[in-house]
Amino acid sequence: MTKAIQILLIIKKYVIETQYLKQHLLFDCSKRAEYRLHDRCQQPIEKNLYNLHASTNKCIMAQPESIAGRCLLCNMDVSPNNDIGWRKHLIEKCTANGRRKM
Questions:
Q1: What is the pTM of this model?
Q2: pLDDT tens digits, residue range 45-90?
Q3: The Centrosomal protein CEP104 Zn finger domain covers which part of the protein (predicted)?
Q4: Residue 51 burial (C-beta neighbours within 10 Å; 0-12, 13-18, 19+)
Q5: Are 81 and 66 in contact (CB under 8 A)?
């Protein structure tokens, strides 16, 4: 029996894999104009919060995507940045996954 994990997010009428949420917010989302990619952490930040986010300088610098992805649910790096790494992260490590047993 497999564990139920939060791999898919339902946003409006779309079903999006968690690992592709960044790309969705920046390129596919109907509200993509409301997001801006932060250079340091490489995360999409709402434009109205961008200056506050950038001024705190507390975000974690992103690794190259060839090494690790960044989970937008919990802000942890996911390595390896592939289906296996993401599945392991969501099942075992993601503190924001409500279906994961703590």
A1: 0.79
A2: 999 999 999 999 899 999 999 999 999 999 999 999 999 999 999 9
A3: 14-91
A4: exposed
A5: yes
Token digits for 16?
């999006």
Structure-block tokens of residue 10: 């339902």
Q: What is the 3-state secondary structure (H, E, C) of the chain?
A: CCCCCCCEEEECCEEEEHHHHHHHHHHHCCCHHHEEECCCCCCEEEHHHHHHHHHHCCCCCCCCCCCCEECCCCCCEECCCCHHHHHHHHHHHCCCCCCCCC
Q: Of how many residues is the chain composed? A: 102
Measured distance CA(95)–CA(56) in Å, rounded: 23
